[in-house]
Amino acid sequence: MSFSLPTLIRFALFGTCIAIQLPGYSQLSDAQTSEHSGVYLLATGRRLPLLYTISLETALLQQNQRTSNAIVSRSLVAERHLDGRLLGDPANLVISEDGRTAFIINHHGSIDNAEFRQHGGRGQVAVIDVDAALNPANNLTANALLRSMDSGGFGAIGAVLLPEMLVINNAENHLTEDGGNRITFVDRRTGGLRHTIELQLGNPEFECEQYPVPYVSPYGPPSNRAILAPDQGFGCFPNPNGLAMGRTSNDTRYLFTANGGTGDVSIVDLEAALRGEADAERPRVVNQPGAWGITATPDGRHIIVAHGGRQDRAQAGNTIAIVDVELAVAGSPQSEVARVKVGTNDPAVQTHPLIPSVRPDGRELVVPNLRGDSVSIVNLELALSGVTGAESAEVARIPLQHPSGGPVRPKGSSISADGRFAAISAGGGSQPYSEETGLVFIIDLEIRDVVATVTGVGNDPYNLAFVYR
């Protein structure tokens, strides 16, 4: 069942709660929930362009299971159109070091999702005051929106926060899913574009000599060659999706991009980039097609790449790769030190792992499987041991159930600071986009089970993050 936005708002404000016992859910005590009274989730609404604030304490209460009661407020991620329509395309977010500011990546900028049926919109970053977003009085307003910043490219998605700048992957080109190769550095205070890295084109199987990089006039990314990608030229551009930061043993920092177009992983020397060098990209890590989600272990020594959906054809993967940062930076062909099948035991089944997260102690990895309608828990020590094999490294597989019985389509993940809970965003996009059909599942990682389901979270929601008060 889905509800339109006005219906959900009326229910949240005036509806009554009925306590029921649902199979698969354990009753949490008041003491257990009170521990999390200052813990919230920020979730991007994607096709319904709002940032959702969710109370973990309220979500864990038994009477709130499979309701939207835990939603505290919804914040606009762009100013409304003059005729009142909602604008924006919030897909990703990163939280400031003090937890007071959220940087929301509007994948295609300030657009009307019902009208924009194409890829390659100009990326935008909404800077949100978290305290204002937590205030129910600001529901459905732009009161939490501090400012909007240009991403410096098209199809913005991956992001890493530096003390003074936001680093952004721009995965597309103007009005096309193909043609992205830019990593931009945007000033956090002013929104100014400080630097651009242009990733090399092609891969060992695909040469792109006709488009030299860095681009110089009259050359540049073609704006009319791949309007309806994929086409026969797909594979020329890296189309960098997820972005993560790794560290070597001497604490040198490197950016790693999951390249959906070329099916590999780019390595960018961050220190060289911060010196303004345009050619800071190092030799790539050969990977499987469909690289999209990516994250780093807490110590930065390993990068995890999820082999999700390919951009050149209707095909998805079912594995994650673990890359050793030291070996990758050295150019070793053995830098991928483990590959783990997730969400299935059948190599032919396409589970489409998407946005992984690592527990704070670095021991386990949480992977949402979009087509598998499940979440995999991977033990990193087992995966890296090289003894037990990839199959046994997936130590748990947690099925997710949609309240309506339909497909769940989990995408994003985040893990609480204490390592206890994983939050998973889910739900595919559905017309009309004004319907709040998205879900957030809360998984207790100690008991390996879903302990809360929040409904009405956007439409096709992507990433989310925990914040604390």
Describe the structure.
The protein has helices at 5-14, 30-34, 56-60, 130-133, 270-274, 325-329, 380-385, 390-393, and strands at 39-44, 50-55, 71-76, 90-95, 101-106, 122-129, 145-161, 165-173, 176-187, 193-198, 240-247, 253-259, 264-269, 281-286, 291-296, 302-307, 319-324, 336-341, 357-358, 364-369, 374-379, 394-399, 410-415, 421-426, 439-444, 449-455, 464-468. The protein has 469 residues and is mainly beta. It has a single domain (5-12, 26-215, 225-468), classed as YVTN repeat-like/Quinoprotein amine dehydrogenase (Methylamine Dehydrogenase, Chain H, 7 Propeller). It starts with a helix and ends with a strand.
Quick description:
By secondary structure, the chain is mainly beta. The chain is 9% helix and 39% strand. The protein has a single domain (5-12, 26-215, 225-468), classed as 7 Propeller (Methylamine Dehydrogenase, Chain H), CATH 2.130.10.10.
Distance between the termini: 33 Å
Counted beta strands: 27
Radius of gyration in whole Å, from Cα?
Answer: 21 Å
CATH superfamily: YVTN repeat-like/Quinoprotein amine dehydrogenase
Class by alpha and beta content: mainly beta
